Amino acid sequence: QVQLVESGGGLVQAGDSLRLSCAASGRTLSRYTMGWFRQAPGKDREFVATFSRDGRSTYYADSVKGRFTISRDYAKNTVYLQMNSLNPEDTAVYYCAADGGYGLKFAPNEYDYWGQGTQVTVSS
Fold first, then answer.
1. Cα–Cα distance between 95 and 119 in angstroms, integer?
2. How confident is the model at residue 54 (pLDDT cuts 50, 70, 90)?
3. Half-sphere exposure of 61 (CA within 13 A, CB side)
4. pLDDT higher than threshold 90 for residue 103
5. Are 20 and 84 in contact (CB under 8 A)?
6. Which of 1, 23, 62, 71 has the greatest count of CB atoms below 10 A from its CB?
């Protein structure tokens, strides 16, 4: 079983950048497909980005494509979400998630393990 802890959220202005981290413990992240999701107040949790278990593939939501980048550091057992050109519509609680299956995964119910979330607020 893997435990996930997110960090790096905060309050920024439109156009700024943030890098979120998701530190894993208990198991190596090479065993998991990883994903980032976000949830704004009153809205469903939505897919942001995913990184396949074999490390070969990534995929992004259209709303963040070209602005956000998901990456892994195997030595640190950590997944990152680099977020550039932030806008107020990116304001949400951001969650990382892990699943032991193969392939890219886009729906929250495809993931077995979740972090507690980190708040990102972008002011205009």
1. 9
2. confident
3. 16
4. no
5. no
6. 23
